[in-house]
Amino acid sequence: MTMRHGPRFLALVAMLLALTFVGAAQADNHGHQQPEMVKVTQSPHSFPETLAAFEREASEAGWSILNRNNMAGTLSERGFTIDPVVILDVCSGRYSAQILEEDAYRPVSAFMPCRVSIYQDSQGDVFISRMNVPDFLPMMPEGVAEVMEKSSDEIEAIIERAIAE
Fold it and tell me: What domains sit in the chain, N to C, each tagged with a CATH number?
């Protein structure tokens, strides 16, 4: 199966571009009417507790935190003041390798690693957001969809454990 610029791949790329713009426009919804392409879960814990719990649970589940992007800190250095936002690039080698070992699946690497955002809104509420992977699965080749579904299920379990602590 070749995925080079096939209609399903192009639809996926278009959908992710739309997600970028829709997510920015609807960011203030915080899960009250969350966009279909983004899942948002409220945490009962403080921002630092939620961040630490997610990182701990991810590590215990065998996932790596490849990057920790402190957006509030970065923007603060540039003169902007925003509520805390940390975007984590998380990776599980067992899933990444299954996608990256297939030449036909490598274009999907543009969506890797998995990204999880932990943020606090202006009312002090804390949220965890991530891509709503099940909405993307029908657009993906079967092999990629299977891997992404398993990966997504693990991320969801990590989030559930992190907010239950």
Answer: 7-164 (3.30.310.70)
Task: Report the alpha-carbon distance of residue 158 to residue 54 in Å, rounded.
Answer: 7
DSSP 122: T
Q: How far apart are CA 22 and CA 81, in angstroms?
A: 23
CA dihedral 26, 28, 32, 38 (to 10 degrees): 50
Element (H, E) at 130: strand 126-131
pTM of the model: 0.77
Asked whether 94 and 61 are in contact (CB, 8 A), the reply is no
Task: For residue 103, give the amino acid letter.
Answer: D
Running DSSP on this structure, what letter comes out for residue 102? S
Position 95 scores a pLDDT of 95
pLDDT at 10: 39
R_g of the chain computed on alpha carbons: 16
The pair of structure tokens assigned to 68 is 């920790």
Q: Which DSSP symbol is given to 124? A: S
Alpha carbon distance 139, 7 (integer Å): 9
Which H or E run includes 70?
strand 64-70
